[in-house]
Structure formats: structure tokens, C-alpha cells
Design brief:
In chain A, 40% of the residues lie in helices and 17% in strands. Chain A is built from 17 helices and 13 strands. Helices cover 31% and strands 22% of the residues of chain B. The chains are: A alpha/beta (379), B alpha+beta (338).
């Protein structure tokens, strides 16, 4: 497949692996966080970790939108789906995530709720237009990548006067989460953040550009290399991070030059700014409340805001205090350090964000225990 | 019965009520297509010598008609294949229909004709059946249940428990064609693809394989859950590990493309005309040659090997050069957001 196989070429992978191995300094460790679930997916799917020297350890970050959505918000969506007359639309991988009483959207559907999987937010607007008697709600989740399409759907609904369409916004912001990982005072008080550098998001950066990362590269002295989602992208970015760390640099570099610019997509950013505004605070599963880290609809679009329309109350966050996700996500603990791991917290009954999707650190440990431990022993 | 003659009408409750209308439907549609059944409440079969293999399967699919097949051909081939995977030669099938009131008779006739054709191609008879009609809204057009009987000759014994370290793992062709073909036609996925379902009867292919590699340990058709599910079933039941090579797994380029687009993994996508065989190493070459010589096995490939592993892991050496776990799928495979 053109434009795909080129970025998965095993010969180039071996060459890059040799370069990384040659650059790694003896006795030094390189703890690199890939923020995005897309990168985590690529690392698992292609077995990238196997090609890296033991000194390079990848820490899987909170950039999986399904994982970081707090249970309370999912419970709100479940309650919405069960309202008579409501059709709840969302992306596929949200359907299986259990809420606080283990109910999922799939189960709600089995019990009679009208829950639909859509491939795009605009599909939800089309559903609303096709069936004016239903209240169609788009359960919107995701980072800066999926926000512009949601904004476009809201604009489309506004332009065409689709009165039975609304959005339950759970869109969150990448830079705010990275900042939180680096500076959470509670964590800094206990121990330092065990992350040496960041693999910057691919698709998110297409939208927001490279510029937003400059602040914390400088402020926290952590290098950031924006990387594409193909496995060679990931390896090249790792090489670039290792070189920065060796040279004592902490800069924002862009590996994903074929798609990311410094300023990002101006049209998409303008559209998002027109429709959305910042929330003062938003709960993240695994991180807790993070200030200015999420978006809600502006007052001008209140008619399309499901939270206003259905007078939805946000339940308090119900993070289990014993959950070690905050430390795991900061590279300060391993899944097996957590008292809940494999006991109360399993892939079937996830308590923390790292157990929710297959790509979370805890879920990977749980499923592939022996292999994960073997890899770790090798490091 | 003008409706039945012209096939202009729809299924009505009277077609399942046990009276003359039902008898007419059976005679004019089912018996006419299958060439037998209809009069007696049972079929009496003379089977060749050997042990009897029995299997049954229910078929529910949306859409009913898809590129490369329909619920009818699927219902015949699905049960034929389940029997053939036990090393049995399928002999006869039964067919039970649950029809929804209002279902177009013309569509039913198409499905029945497709079943008859699939049965002929597989060399099996459809010998008896059943028809029920449910009220509108209580079915999804048509559900079909087939059961089949076949005969295992001699002392042949295939089992999912049979895999031994060192055995070769072979697939008979490209993975994921059926699932992608069906998904592409479903509402909500706006893409077109040239992929057609691989829906086919595997008894001929299985017989060719067994003739060339009589030591074959196990055969499975990787339907729901795809190749990954079958490999895990074998590893679990046999108490072994399996390592496959991604580069060796045949995948049609259009299937790869569709999977890229939707965020799916071809290893988990359903097939309806492929088999996975575990063969002792000394017979692997003969098995592969026999599969490739058959029209349904031209893309056959050795994709990996069985090894000793108390953890019973299925792993894959990725084309990229790394290694990953190939786990069971949890629930239905759903497109990823990011």
C-alpha cells in the first residue's frame, strides 16, 4: 500500500534501531512518554519496543480519549441514552467502556436505549435531520483531532436549523494534560516525574501545530519530538529524543513534517474557537481535576449543548483512592505496584484509566503479564 | 397462490400456519429448489461407512445480500465447513427458516435458489426443513438454521487439541475478505471497496489437504473472531504456544486498505471460505502444495509454527521486525477513535 508501506519498512526499522542503539550512552536511561493512544497502539501493534535498546523505556501516556473520560461523564451519557426519545450517537470504541455500575452503552442498547455507532459527527446531524421526532445527541469525546469535526457538525446543525440535534461535549486538550503531568504539586511533593522526554502527538499537532509545546519544553526542560503514527515515525522520533537528551537540549522538534506545521490548521482552530470555550476545570480519569483542560459549547450555541438542554448534572468524580494511575501515568510506578491491579481492577472491571483500553499500561500488563515482565527484566 | 407464482407478494402469517398456504410455499419454493423433502417429517439417509459428524449453525446477517454471497449460500457453506473441518465428508443438510411477516417472496426465492446452488457446488443434499413465520418486527427478514450430517472415514481423528510443538500452521488463503465485504455494505460506513466475500464450501479443499497430509492434527475455519480466535482456541486446547509471522499472512490489498481506514485488524475479521490447518512439520510442504493446487487454496501459506509454551500465548513477529501478542478479541471489533 503506497504511503503506508514506506513507513513500515523493516530494513529501515533495523537501521534506525542500530542508530538508536549506537547513540544510547552507557549507564544512562531514557524514559520517554508517548502521550497519544495512537502512538501506544503503533508501539504495541508493530512491536516497536522489541527493537529498542533496554535503556529506552516507553511510558504510555494519558492520550487515549476513551481511557481518560471519567466514569461520571460516561454515567451521564448512559442516563441520557436511557431517556425516552433520545438517540445517542458516538464513536465505536466508546460503546464497550463500563460505567460505574458496570453498564455499557452496548448494554443500554440491549435494554432498549437507542444507541448508534457513527463514523463522524456529521452522521449524527444527518440522523437528526432524517428523524425530526428523535432528540439526537452526539456523545463527543476526543482530543483536538476530533474537536473540529464536532464543531463543524454543530455549525452545520445551526446553519440548517436542525433543532433536534445536540452535543454532549467531552472534548479535552492535550497541552493542559501534559502540563498537569509535569507540574502536579501533589506528585512533585512525593517524587519527581520520571519522564525524560515526550513523543508529541501526531494528529493533534496537525490541528494545533508545534508551537503549544514550546512552553513546557522550555519551562520544564523536557524535549518534545512531534511524531507521526507509523512505526518508523515513532522510531525516528525516539532517535531524535535520544540525541536531544545526549546533547542536553530540550527543544520542540518536528519529525512529522509531512503533516505538522508550527502554527497548525488555522481554519480548524478558528472553527473550534467559534463554537467552543474553555471549561474552568475538567476531571480526567487517572489524573483527577485538570484546570482549563476541556471544552464546552459557547453560549451562542447553547441550543446545541446537551448539558444545558437536558439539564444534566455532573456527578462528583469517583476515583478510587488506591488507584495508582496518577503515578503510573507519570512514570513513577508500575502497574504491579498498585494494590488494585488484577484484584478489583481488571480489563472487565477497570477502575483506573490505564486498565480501560487494551493499550493502557495496566491492561497490557494484565493480558500479557509474562511478556511485559520479560521485557521489563530485559531493561 | 398467484403471489407465489409471480413472487410479487410478501411472506404472510398464513405461510407459517400449517395449512394449505404453507404446503404451497414449501412445495413451490423449497422443494422446487432443493429437489426433495416436503412430504415426510424426516429424511431417512443411507450413510457410507464411518463415524457420523453432526453440526448445526444459525445464520443472522445484515445485509442479507452482500458482494460474493447472501444468507443462503452462507447457511449452506457454514455448516458444510463445520463438518468438513472435522475431516468428515458432508452428506446432507436440514434447513430451518424463520421468516418475518412482510418479507418479499422474491428475496426469499433468491435466497433459496442460492442455497440450492451452494448445496450443488458442495455436493450435499438439503433433505428436510422447517418454516415458521413471525409477526412483522419480530424478526430481521429471514433467519436460517442449518444442520448437517457427514461421515468421517477410517481412523482419521482431527481435534483442536491435537497441535504439537514443531507443527506448521497453514492458512488456505487471504484473511478478512468476508468481514470487510459485509462491513462495507452496512449503513454508516461510507466507503466502496472491490472486496467480495470468500463464502465457499471447503469440503473439497479439506479432502485434498487430508489426502496430501494425512497426519494433519487440526482444521478450523476462521469465521467470527477471525484467525486470532482460531489460533487462540488451538493454543488453549492443545496446551501450546503459537508464533506466526505477519509478513506470511496473506491479506488482500483492498482488505488491508479498508482495515487501515477503519482501524481494524485483519487478524480479527471473519472469513467464510478459508481454513487454518495444523500439520506435522514433515507433511507441511505436501499440505501446502495440495492446498495451492486447489482453486480455493491458491494463496495458501505457512504462517507460523506451534511451540511449547505453558502460557499458551499466540504471538506474532510483525512485518516491521518486532513481536506482539495476538489476543482473543474482546466483544465485537469496533473502529478506533485515535
Amino acid at each position: 500500500m503506497r504511503y503506508v508501506d514506506e513507513f513500515r519498512d523493516p530494513a529501515r526499522a533495523r537501521a534506525l534501531a542500530a542508530c538508536i542503539a549506537a547513540e544510547v550512552q552507557p549507564g544512562r536511561s531514557y524514559r520517554l512518554m508517548e502521550f497519544c493512544g495512537g502512538h501506544t497502539h503503533a508501539i504495541f501493534r508493530y512491536g516497536v519496543q522489541d527493537l529498542l535498546p533496554a535503556a529506552v523505556r516507553m511510558i504510555h501516556g494519558p492520550g487515549c480519549p476513551v481511557c481518560v473520560l471519567p466514569v461520571g461523564r460516561l454515567d451521564m451519557a448512559l442516563a441520557l441514552a436511557r431517556r425516552p426519545g433520545v438517540t445517542l450517537c458516538t464513536y465505536g470504541d466508546m460503546l464497550r467502556v463500563p460505567g460505574s455500575r458496570k453498564g455499557t452503552l452496548l448494554r443500554a442498547r440491549a435494554e432498549g436505549a437507542d444507541v448508534r455507532m457513527v463514523g463522524s459527527a456529521l452522521d449524527a446531524v444527518r440522523l437528526a435531520e432524517a428523524d425530526p421526532a428523535r432528540d439526537v445527541v452526539f456523545f463527543a469525546i476526543g482530543f483536538e483531532t476530533t474537536t473540529p469535526p464536532t464543531a463543524a457538525a454543530i455549525r452545520r446543525a445551526a446553519d440548517r436549523g436542525v433543532g433536534n440535534f445536540s452535543v454532549f461535549s467531552n472534548h479535552v486538550l492535550t497541552p493542559a494534560a501534559i502540563m498537569n503531568i509535569l507540574e502536579a504539586p501533589a506528585v512533585r511533593a512525593i517524587e519527581r516525574v520520571e519522564i525524560d522526554g515526550f513523543l508529541g502527538p501526531a494528529h493533534v499537532s496537525v490541528v494545533i501545530g508545534a508551537q503549544p509545546y514550546e512552553h513546557f519544553a522550555e519551562e520544564f526542560g523536557k524535549p518534545v519530538v512531534i511524531a507521526g503514527f507509523e512505526p518508523l515515525d515513532v522510531m525516528q522520533a525516539i532517535l531524535m529524543l535520544v540525541r536531544q537528551l545526549n546533547a542536553g537540549r530540550a527543544e520542540v522538534e518536528n519529525q512529522y513534517t509531512r503533516a505538522v506545521t508550527r502554527d497548525g490548521n488555522a481554519a480548524a482552530k478558528a472553527l473550534v474557537a467559534e463554537v467552543f470555550e474553555l471549561r474552568r476545570s475538567f476531571d480526567w480519569r487517572g489524573l483527577g481535576p485538570v484546570p482549563y483542560s476541556a471544552l464546552r459549547l459557547r453560549a451562542a450555541y447553547a441550543a446545541f449543548d446537551a448539558e444545558r438542554r437536558f439539564a444534566m448534572d455532573a456527578p462528583p468524580a469517583v476515583e478510587n483512592k488506591a488507584c495508582e494511575c496518577p503515578r503510573i501515568l507519570r512514570g513513577a510506578a508500575r502497574p504491579t505496584d498498585c494494590r488494585l491491579f488484577g484484584r478489583q481492577c481488571t480489563p472487565q472491571t477497570p477502575l483506573g484509566s490505564c486498565m480501560v483500553s487494551d493499550e493502557g499500561a495496566c491492561a497490557a500488563y494484565y493480558r500479557y503479564g509474562r511478556r511485559a515482565r520479560a521485557l521489563e527484566a530485559a531493561q | 397462490m398467484k403471489d407465489l407464482d409471480s413472487l410479487a407478494g410478501v411472506v404472510e402469517l398464513r405461510h407459517g400456519a400449517g395449512g394449505r398456504d404453507m404446503a404451497e410455499l414449501i412445495a413451490r419454493l423449497f422443494v422446487a429448489a432443493f429437489g426433495e423433502g416436503g412430504e415426510e417429517d424426516q429424511a431417512v439417509l443411507a450413510l457410507p461407512p464411518g463415524r457420523v459428524a453432526l453440526s448445526t449453525d444459525g445464520f443472522v446477517i445484515a445485509p442479507l445480500f452482500f458482494p460474493g454471497g447472501d444468507i443462503g449460500s452462507l447457511a449452506v457453506n457454514g455448516t458444510v465447513n463445520d463438518i468438513a473441518m472435522g475431516g468428515a465428508e458432508p452428506v446432507a443438510l436440514t434447513a430451518g427458516f424463520i421468516l418475518e411477516e412482510g418479507f418479499p417472496l422474491a428475496d426469499l426465492a433468491r435466497i433459496v435458489a442460492s442455497m440450492a446452488q451452494a448445496a450443488r457446488a458442495a455436493g450435499v443434499r438439503i433433505v428436510t426443513g422447517d418454516t415458521k413465520v413471525v409477526e412483522r418486527g419480530k424478526g430481521d427478514g429471514v433467519f436460517i438454521t442449518t444442520a448437517g450430517v457427514g461421515v468421517v472415514a477410517g481412523s482419521l481423528s482431527l481435534s483442536v487439541r491435537g497441535a504439537r510443538p514443531g507443527d506448521a500452521v497453514i492458512v488456505s488463503g487471504t484473511m478478512g475478505d468476508h468481514g470487510v465485504a459485509v462491513m462495507a455494505t452496512r449503513a454508516g460506513f461510507d466507503f466502496e471497496t472491490e472486496v467480495v466475500s470468500d463464502c465457499a464450501a471447503l469440503n473439497g479443499l479439506a479432502a485434498a489437504l487430508l489426502a496430501a497430509a494425512p497426519g494433519t492434527r487440526s482444521m478450523r475455519d476462521p469465521t467470527r473472531g477471525g484467525l486470532a480466535a482460531v489460533l487462540n482456541e488451538i493454543a488453549q486446547a492443545s496446551g501450546v504456544g503459537i508464533v506466526i509471522r505477519e509478513a506470511a499472512v496473506p491479506v488482500h490489498p483492498a482488505v488491508r486498505g479498508a482495515c487501515e481506514l477503519l482501524g481494524l485488524d485483519p487478524l480479527y475479521v471473519a472469513n467464510e471460505g478459508k481454513l487454518v490447518a495444523v500439520v506435522p512439520p514433515e507433511q507441511a510442504a505436501a499440505a501446502l502444495a495440495a492446498l495451492r493446487a486447489h482453486p480455493l487454496g491458491q494463496d495458501a501459506a505457512v504462517i507460523g509454527a506451534v511451540r511449547a509454551d505453558p502460557d499458551r500465548f499466540v504471538e506474532m513477529e510483525t512485518a516491521f521486525g518486532g513481536r506482539r501478542m495476538v489476543d482473543w478479541i474482546a466483544g465485537e471489533q469496533l473502529p478506533r477513535i485515535c
